[in-house]
Design a protein that fits this description.
The chain has about 130 residues and is of the alpha/beta class. Helix content is about 40%, strand content about 15%. Helix 3 links the parallel strand 2 and strand 3.
Length: about 130
Amino acid sequence: GEEVFEMVDAAARVALDTRGAFAIGIPGGSVLKMLKTSDDEEPPAWTASTTVAWVNHKCVAVDDAALATSAKARASFLDAWNARRVVDVSGSSDADAEAAAYESALRDLAADGALLVDDDGYPVFDVMLVGV
């Protein structure tokens, strides 16, 4: 887990130095534990310039501490990070509506410069973590 955090930390520093912002895609599960700093440690300064998005979603209430990735992340590290932006779902059971709203939110971030885009207009993250 420590190696994952170190990789994220290094990528965040490069992104901030080169474009002034950092965007990360995060899954749920054990990866969330890897991004947590110790309780007595301040999060790195780059976290305040970070856009966080999720790489997977469940159609559950966003405050469901047992099932919702965002609720688990907030409890583990995200509240302490004080991230600039968190792209989240509304927590409805309508998967199609949630996907459309999420896509729209990512496109808006790309239009605002918070996310880079590739030649086809797809958002590009500085780091995309995927659990296994």
